[in-house]
């Protein structure tokens, strides 16, 4: 087992700060768990993010099945975190979510992995739930990284 599992959100920061934070933590694999891996923030859309992560010497994997359904994303935007948790719990019972959770567990067992989503505070994000599910299988400690604000 490796040294642990990480999470990070890119809200309020930029790609360079995220990459620096990942490198400083010794992350070797970034696991993007957004349902829609597009962003208006420069550098965080899937293709450019994957290329930047790879250029920084890390692996990148997008696991769409671990993303929050639209209703859950809408709930978070309205400050309804408990509602998002309920929606996401139902989503995690789908076949796609189960398959991608198994993939995330395998990655976390083999590499120093970090789950990526948007929200800066993990408490308001589904990545906290996914990290707990992975921890239940691997026993890994979870650390929530915060990139420098810009």
Description:
- There is one protein chain.
- The model has no long low-confidence stretch (mean pLDDT 96).
- Helix content is 45%, strand content 15%.
- Strands 3-2-4-1-5 form a five-stranded parallel β-sheet, sandwiched between helices.
- It has helices at 15-25, 46-55, 70-77, 81-91, 95-110, 127-138; strands at 5-9, 29-32, 59-62, 113-117, 142-146.
- It contains six helices and five strands, in the order βαβαβαααβαβ.
- The protein has a single domain (5-146), classed as 3-Layer(aba) Sandwich (Cobalt-precorrin-4 Transmethylase, domain 1), CATH 3.40.1010.
- By secondary structure, the protein is α/β, with parallel strands linked by helices.
- 34% of the residues are buried.
Percentage of residues assigned to helices: 40-55%
How would you characterize the largest beta sheet? 5 strands, parallel
Give the overall average pLDDT: 96
What is the string of SSEs from the N terminus onward?
EHEHEHHHEHE
Total DSSP E strands = 5
Task: Quickly list its features.
150 residues; alpha/beta; globular; Cobalt-precorrin-4 Transmethylase, domain 1; 5-stranded parallel sheet; 6 helices
Task: Summarize the model shown.
By secondary structure, this protein is α/β, with parallel strands linked by helices. It is 45% helix and 15% strand. It has a single domain (5-146), classed as Cobalt-precorrin-4 Transmethylase, domain 1 (3-Layer(aba) Sandwich).
How are the elements arranged and paired?
Elements: E1 5-9, H1 15-25, E2 29-32, H2 46-55, E3 59-62, H3 70-77, H4 81-91, H5 95-110, E4 113-117, H6 127-138, E5 142-146
Parallel strand pairs: 1-4, 1-5, 2-3, 2-4
Helix pairs in contact: 3-4, 5-6
């Amino acid at each position: 087992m490796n040294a642990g599992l990480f999470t990070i959100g890119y809200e309020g920061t930029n790609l360079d700060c995220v990459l620096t934070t990942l490198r400083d933590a010794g992350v070797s694999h970034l696991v993007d768990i957004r349902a829609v891996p597009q962003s208006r923030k420069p550098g965080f859309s899937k293709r450019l993010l994957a290329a930047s992560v790879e250029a920084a010497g890390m692996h990148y994997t997008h696991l769409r099945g671990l993303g929050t359904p639209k209703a859950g994303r809408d709930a978070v935007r309205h400050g309804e975190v408990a509602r998002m948790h309920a929606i996401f719990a139902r989503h995690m019972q789908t076949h796609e979510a189960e398959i991608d959770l198994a993939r995330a567990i395998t990655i976390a067992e083999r590499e120093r992995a970090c789950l990526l989503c948007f929200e800066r505070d993990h408490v308001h994000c589904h990545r906290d739930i996914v990290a707990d599910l992975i921890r239940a299988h691997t026993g890994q400690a979870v650390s929530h990284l915060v990139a420098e604000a810009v």
